[in-house]
Specification:
The chain has one domain. It contains 4 helices and no strands. The chain has helices at residues 3-11, 14-21, 38-46, 51-79.
């Protein structure tokens, strides 16, 4: 997984989004709760800060790549 994709993946963590709702109650630095990538900020807004909706696009992309890899591997095996 690429460095940028991994950063977006971590920025969209449901735990991170829920922690953000308690930002005012937590002491200390809380800059780790802010999105670090523009795509993360866009997906948070598009998902209305609701964890299942925010994470859906990246989960879908990861599943599509996984299924494509599986299909390619199956085709290679069937040709041998």
């Amino acid at each position: 997984m690429g460095k940028n994709v991994e950063a977006v993946y971590w920025d969209l963590s449901p735990y991170l989004l829920i922690a953000g709702s308690y930002r005012h109650e937590l002491e200390g630095a809380n800059s780790w709760m802010r999105p670090h990538m523009l795509l993360s900020a866009i997906l948070r807004i598009a998902g209305l800060w609701y964890p299942p909706l925010v994470g859906f696009p990246i989960a879908l992309a990861v599943d599509v790549v996984r299924l494509a890899n599986r299909a390619v591997a199956w085709q290679i095996r069937s040709q041998q």
